Amino acid sequence: MVDAVISPDVVARYAADAAREVEGVTGVVEGVRKGIRVEGEEIELHLSVGWGVSIPDVGAAVQEHVAAYLQRMTDARPAAVNVVVEEIDGPA
């Protein structure tokens, strides 16, 4: 997935931007590569979500949106987009 011309840091930044666009995602949890790990054709995102959202639904939406976004931006679709929910924000 990651072309030699596109650095993993750039792919990670694109993935983070795409994930933040999904309703229910409140942020990327800081950590390795600012919450995003790119290894070969796989991407792992560590996210926080809003209180009361359906985690399976948000996770699936993130997977699809990130894959489509990366395909548009890099002309390659990742083999896997793994979502790890690290935090759930408290009720508003």
> At CATH's second level, what is the architecture?
2-Layer Sandwich
pLDDT < 50 stretches:
none
Distance between the termini: 39 Å
β-strand percent reads 25-35%
Rg to the nearest angstrom?
13 Å
How many strand segments?
A: 4
CATH H level, superfamily name:
Cation efflux protein, cytoplasmic domain
Find the structural class using helix and strand composition: alpha+beta
CATH topology: Alpha-Beta Plaits
Main sheet summary: 4 strands, mixed
Overall morphology: globular
CATH class: Alpha Beta
The overall pLDDT average reads: 90
Tally of individual domains: 1
Q: What's the total helix number?
A: 2
Assign a percent range to the helix content. 25-40%
Order of SSEs, N→C?
A: HEEEHE
What is the element layout, followed by pairings?
Layout: H1 8-20, E1 25-28, E2 36-39, E3 42-49, H2 55-74, E4 80-88
Parallel strand pairs: 3-4
Antiparallel strand pairs: 1-3, 2-3
Which properties best describe this structure?
Alpha-Beta Plaits; alpha+beta; four-stranded mixed β-sheet; 2 helices; 92 residues
Protein architecture, described:
With 92 residues, the protein is α+β, with helices and mostly antiparallel strands. It has one domain (8-88): 2-Layer Sandwich (Alpha-Beta Plaits), CATH 3.30.70. 36% of the residues lie in helices and 27% in strands. Strands 1, 2, 3 and 4 form a 4-stranded mixed β-sheet that branches. α1 packs across α2 (55-74).
Quick recap:
The protein has helices at 8-20, 55-74, and strands at 25-28, 36-39, 42-49, 80-88. With 92 residues, the protein is α+β, with helices and mostly antiparallel strands.
